[in-house]
Amino acid sequence: MAGGMMLLQAAADTAGAYRDFPLIGSRAAIWIAAEIHLMFAAFVLGVPIFAVVAEAIGIFGKDQRYDRLSKEFTRLLLIAYSATAIWGAVFVFLLSTLYPKFWAYMTAIFGVSMWVYVSIFFFESFTLYLYYYGWDRWKYGRAKIGHWCLGILLNVWGTIVMFIADSWLTYMMTPPRDITPETSPTSIKLWHAILNHTWMPINIHRLIGNIVFGGAIVGAYASYRFLAARTEEERAHYDWMGYVGNFIAMSALIVLPFAGYWLGREIYQYDQSMGITMMGGFMSWLWVIQAFLIAVLFLAGNYYLWVGMGRIPGAERFRPYTKWLLVVLVLGALVWGTPHTMIADSRELAAMGGSHHPLLGALGVMSAKNTAVNLMILSTFLSFLLYRRANIRQVVPWAKTGTRIQAGMFVIAAAIVLFFGIRGYFVEAIVRIGYSVYQVGAVLACIIFVTIIDVLMARGAQSLGAIQWGRMPPRSQYALFILAVTFTWLMGLMGFARSGIRQHWHVWQVMQDMTPYAATPALGYAAIMISTCVLIFLSLVGFIFWLGGLAEKSTFVPSTVEAPHVGQ
Amino acid sequence: MWANNLRIIAVVLGTLALYTLIANKIPQVQSEVPHALTLGANVTPEQLTAAGDQLYHGAGGCTACHGLGTRAPNLLTDEKGLGPIGARCGKRETGKDCKAYLYESLTSPRAFVVPGYEPIMPEMGRILSPQQIWALVAFLESQGGTLDVTASDIPATPAAVGGGSGGSGSSGGIAGGSTDPMTIIRGAGCTGCHKVGSEGGAIGPNLTHVGSRLSASLIRECILKPDTRVSKGYEKFVGIMPKIFGNQLTGAQLEALVQFLASRK
Fold first, then answer.
1. Whether the model pTM is above 0.80
2. Contact status of B238 with chain A (Cβ, < 8 Å)
3. Which CATH architecture has domain B45-161?
4. Do A522 and B65 touch (CB under 8 A)?
5. Which CATH architecture has domain B177-262?
6. Where are the domains of chain B?
7. Which of A356, A503, A530, A541 to mutate to test the interface with B (most CBs of B within 10 A)?
8. What residues in B contact A14, CB-CB < 8 Å?
9. Which of A398, A376, A403, A373 is closest to A388 using CA atoms?
């Protein structure tokens, strides 16, 4: 009787709470709308960062090509903004019509922040129009600095908009612990809901991720133009642009895992069971796929650099080192991709000889994986360093000492990474998690100090010859495409991981998903959804690129000065 | 031009196809929704056990940790020579029989943490219904022990939460509604983490002289909303202290506890 009453109550609770979407169902509809909106949002938040930095290099480095590069991308932003807004509207309409009860719950808490969000989006759009259409009007002197400040303002608006939206989704993941299913949403203070466990880690992770994404899309655009170029000058320009895009994407990628650690740590601190579900529960295989994708990113990014060294006079000195870098990267990728604990049935466990593989199990633990990824990051940084130094010979009197100090820093950083990696096997998990901070700190310190020394050493350096921009084999450009596709796919996969760890909850342990789609799907289904979203997004981006070319001729102008490396 | 475009499309589609294929070739595990159990008054222990078995191996998510030998104790197989969980559950905590211990370990897992393991077990009462909890207790008892969960236990859920021993007790708060502070402290499982005098563990702050550090109102706040104030050095344990005492303690019990702790200078 009591059970029957409960069923009746559940039916009453869910009546009118949901509607379904024809053919693909409400979950798939929301998934596609949210994911594509997010991809465009990442594009329109990442590219302005890229544009404002390029404009600054143009202003302060007195190199007009950076200014033109910045303008070329701001033009694409105008169309991408429309696409972002359209997909945002689709998402909101689907959410409010398919999940009205959940939508009402969220608006009861976040209504005010939604109004602020819309207002700032309005300011952001008009700042973008001013930024683009004022480009040629505010071109010189103080007006140009003012124009650049508009670009900074555009980024400020964009960042605030993202932070507001992040508060909604992180609340769904990690609502403050004093909020229970019985808590009335109208009684929840807005700031209390915003300041949840994962809000700031997601903000930082997305901020860096957007830069990576923006750089990767810029790289893909440049490679598309490179392959279609009809003249040597045009090819040189887009080769250079592709290099800049890749440089920015890879530089930001190097620090992205650190933000990821922070996010993971916060998830564990909020609710260990959520962390375990994510890393060792039904999602454990997801990290093997992620490891594969990261390996593709590291290998494709480094491959592009190594091929690029073929167009730099003097780079042949460093070519013998690349094979060793490749060895470290491949070994690192294999360790990172080694599974640890998997959900397995008794037959599978028996076949494996236990819950862990007797030999490879030791490589699947976090100590080994953190060590592997930190060494991969160090190797990639070394690739950049070799690329940077390829066509110069330092003339400062302390050049040899400086190089030895740099080498020493690499050795010390690698030793710290290895030391804590090995020590991690002999301590408790909570202590081991803390070790990743030391490993990350050593790698970051190495990157910062080695770069400072390198910049100082490069002062007045003797050139071994100009970089022969445009002398790149076409295969290198396909590496840039693979990077862009992989970044986009990875974003979809990580979005699934973040959202999927809520499992059958709209709001974790507060509001349950009562639809027939409440079960979190397996990776195979998720992969099909992700690929569909990526395909739609890239098709639309391709269309935007085409429109960009149609609306205005390329801003490319042949340069009379030698293009410097980024950062020089 | 078209050749280039076709190559680009081929690279994009090929990359997408490769990732999709790999993701479909690995084992496919879906996170199921725990189905609501509707157990009638005449449910048999065997039916409870079967339901618990399904939960344990499925939507309960227990196998993510238990059975791997590292994160959490093995439950269905031998653990350090003590046998499966049904055989050892009655000997874990002094004064608690198997049923009470298993119920506590599911609903207030931090009350007692098996030495050598970390307090990572989630409070299953937040995730599963009382019927599901009791089904799990029955299933775990059946693993080498005596199955004594009956249909009568299920309506008695609120009492069993604070049952102290044997799953018995009244609905008037923890430890049968006793207002003796040390009885409440023991009954609520505080000493599983906190040291009070010569009793207790070291996972949470030592409460022996808590009155010298915190006022009565702050102590009350810490009991009702444990995460709003974190003692220095215990930041990593945020979220571990259960937030159930506001519901489980009676007003008299809460005040008795607060005054007792505040007096410990």
1. no
2. yes
3. Orthogonal Bundle (1.10)
4. no
5. Orthogonal Bundle (1.10)
6. 45-161, 177-262
7. A503
8. none
9. A403
